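Moderator note: this is an archived Q&A kept for reference. The question asked for a predicted structure of one protein chain; the sequence and the answer are reproduced below.
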Amino acid sequence: MVRAIIKPKHIKKKQLVSEQNHKLTEYFNIRKSDRRTKREVLEEKRRLIEFALRKGVEDGLEVKYSENKGRGVFATREFVKGEFVVEYSGELIDIHEAYIREQRYEKDENMGCYMYYFKFKEQHYCIDATEETGRLGRLVNHSRNGNLQTKTILVDSIPRLILTAKTYIRPGEELLYDYGDRSKESLEHHPWLAL
């Protein structure tokens, strides 16, 4: 069928062209993109970490014994850079209580001291993980060139300390992070802190 276009004298050329044009959406359905904004991706990542912390998830980790270090934590699967690995879990206490406990722990040579001091939003905190609980974050060993880094996040308005992959981590690799203690006294008692 041939369609003739009759051009009335009072219609301008631009009007005629626009009447002949069609919208692309007349031929194709509109699709929404599955892509998410950076903010949406970060929010989802935060929700997944919160879920893992609430449930005590410690996936892809195992404890092994090594010479000179004792117990350590090793990866049983790969971790990509930036991925949540494990929480440094323990009792969140204030600095005053931390100093009292530290003095008590020093008196007992059979007891270790697994205390992590940190500052979050201008307030000082300490996580005391000295008590054996079965949680693995307290057993991650030190290295100045570790493959993990610490990060503080809020869960239910409580600061939680997590360890995330600083680099790509292969299965079988020991998990390590920098304890950050360079004091002269600490180095005298624990020379491995310099490594």
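Archived answer notes: The first helix runs from residue 13 to 20.
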